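Data availability (excerpt). All sequences and predicted C-alpha cell strings are deposited with the supplementary files. A representative entry, Transposase-associated domain-containing protein, is shown inline so that the format can be inspected without opening the archive.
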Amino acid sequence: MDKSWMETNRISKSYVDGVAAFTDYAVHNLQKTGNIDPRVNKKHIYIPCPCTKCLNHIEHKVEEVQYHLYRHGIDISYTKWTKHGEEDEPSISAPKPVNATTEFVDDMDFAYIPTDGPATVEMVNATKDNFDVDDLVKFQELLLDAEKPLYEGCPDFTKLSAIVKLLNLKGKYGASDKFFTELLGLIKKMLPAGNEMVEKTYQAKKVMRLMGSGYKKIHVCINNCLLYWKNDKDLTACRTCGTSRWKVDNKTKKIYENIPAKAWRTIDEKFPKITEDTRNLRLGISADGVDVNTGNMHHSVWPVLTVIYNLPPWLCMKRKFINLSVLISGYPGNDIDVFLEPLVDDLHTLFETGVDTYDASTKDNFNLRAVVLWTINDYPALGTLCGCPYSGFKGCVVCGKDTNCVRLSASSKQSYVGHRRYLPYNHSFRKQKKAFNGQQEFL
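C-alpha cell line:
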C-alpha cells in the first residue's frame, strides 16, 4: 500500500478529530481520577501513548502523544481505552478504520477478523526470518492459524491466539501436561462443531516451537560435576561424585524419581517469604570491564547489570528488562566494593524488608521483594568481585592461601595442581598408588 496515501489519510479531518477526542477524554479522566486541578495546562500532563511504537508502555506529554498518533498511527487492537480510564469490556468484532494504522491494512474484511488478529500476525511475522527453507510450508500454515477464527463467527480469538493464551495460563499456574491435554479436549467439545482448537498438549507446544519458543531442559549434578546430556542423559547418579541425580528425602532417604536434585526451586525452599508473592523478583547480577576506546588511549568502564529472571524466556534477556544499575568509570580494582555499596544496600533492602510498589495491572500497592540468584562474570571479574587474586601463586579464588601452584621454568607460567584432594577418597582418579617406605598409599 502506498505509504504517502496512508500518511495523508492520517491527517484527514476525521482522523484529526478522533485524535483530539481521544486526548481530551484521556486528560479529562486523568484530571478526574488523579485529583489534578482542571486549570493545569494539559500540555504538562503525561499520558500513556497508544501509537504503534509505544503501545501504551511509555508516557509522553499530550502534544507528543498527538504527534506520535499522526506519525505512527494508533494500535488498532486498542479498541477499549483501558489505559486511559475506559472500563475494560469484552472486545467485539468491528470494522477497523483504515486511517488508524500504517500496518496490516489490505483488502481483507475486518468485520470477520477477530480483534487480536493483526497483533498475532505481527508476532508470527517477527519470527519468520529464523525459519529454514524446509519450514516454509509449516510457517505458511502458522500464518493461516494466526488469521483463522477459532470457530466460525468467533469475535475474539484466532486459532493461534487461543493456543498462545492457554499455554500462557498453563505456564503461569504450573499445570501438568496431562491436565492440560484433558482441558484442551474438554474445551474442544464445548466449542461449536468444526472449531480449530487442538486436542493435545503436544500439538499446542508444536505450534510454539515453530515460532522459535521451544526449549530443552538439561539436568545437572547437584555438585556441578556434569550435565546429564549426550552420553550421560540416562544416568541416575553422577559418575564423578556418585550423588543421586534425583531428589532424596533427608529423613526417609526416599528417592523421588524424575525430580532433579538440583533445580531453581531450591531458592524458593530456602527463602519461603520470597515465594509468597509471585511478583517478587529473582535477579542475576552481571559485571565486567569494557574498553570503550579502540585507539592507543584505553579507557575501561565497568557496567553492572541487573537481569530479571522470573519473566518468560523470550522477555528476560530483552534489553528493556535488563537494568544498568551501576556504571563505574575506570578500573575499580580491589576497591570495587566501594562502588557497589549503593547497589548492595538496595538489594539488601529488597531482600530483607521489600519496598512499597504499585501494580498497574491490579491497581493497588504491594510489598516487592527480591533475591539474587547468582552473578555472571568471567574469571578476572570474579576475582575482582571477590576481592581475591586471580593470577600468580595464589590465583584460585576458591582455594585462596591453600592454592597449590608450581612454576614452570620452561614456559614461565604457573600450573595449578593438587585438585584430586577434593575428590572422594575412594574415587577412581585417586586410585593411583605409589610405594612409600615399603607401603602403598593413595594419592
